[in-house]
Amino acid sequence: MSGLTFKSKDGLELVGELDAPEVIDAALVICHAHPNMGGTMKSPLLIALRDAMLARHYAVLRFNFRGVEGSEGEPTIGAKETADAHGAVDLMKERFAEVPIAIAGWSFGGGVAIKTAAARHDLSACVAIAPAVKEKPGVTAGLPTPEKLATRIPLLVVVGADDDLTPPKDCRAWAEGAGARYVEIPAANHFFWAKYDPLTEAVAGFLEEVV
Prior knowledge:
Low-confidence stretches: none
CATH topology: Rossmann fold
Number of helices: 5
Radius of gyration: 15 Å
Distance between the termini: 23 Å
Order of helices and strands: EEEHEHEHEEHEH
């Protein structure tokens, strides 16, 4: 693991951690949960996902959004964090130009990942874990309707069946409208406590298939 700094698309200095196996077949950028609700790149769920993808020969970059633990700027409701994700993808494109690159995110970060992927032509896949689909005023911008946000790459939406923060029915409806693959993890809540294994298997299986 190596700590690093890089620039967001709008010039803020952000902190991140890059992990890479000896043999690298692909690369993944991971976006964390809500900045104002304890979300950071060190969240256990993100660490579990990192470990699963390292074992599958992925280089993995986790980073802190603006205003979070060492990153410059102030958090927003998701309007400006896409600039942070674009900077992270650009860094991985520079470091690992010869391999396919995907983006993933959890909760708030899932929404950021989807919007970032929809705006680019150089990503191979996107994974959104319990993404913030609906707008919550003052909390999250949510996602545009699928009709307004055309995704051109393989997209996976994964949700816990018992998630009471991002209801599965909302995520399913959005995913179906977007033509995304939808996976619901039985007995899992928003934090996927005790369900990291089925979650990481779903994500890794999808990425191994499409990337």
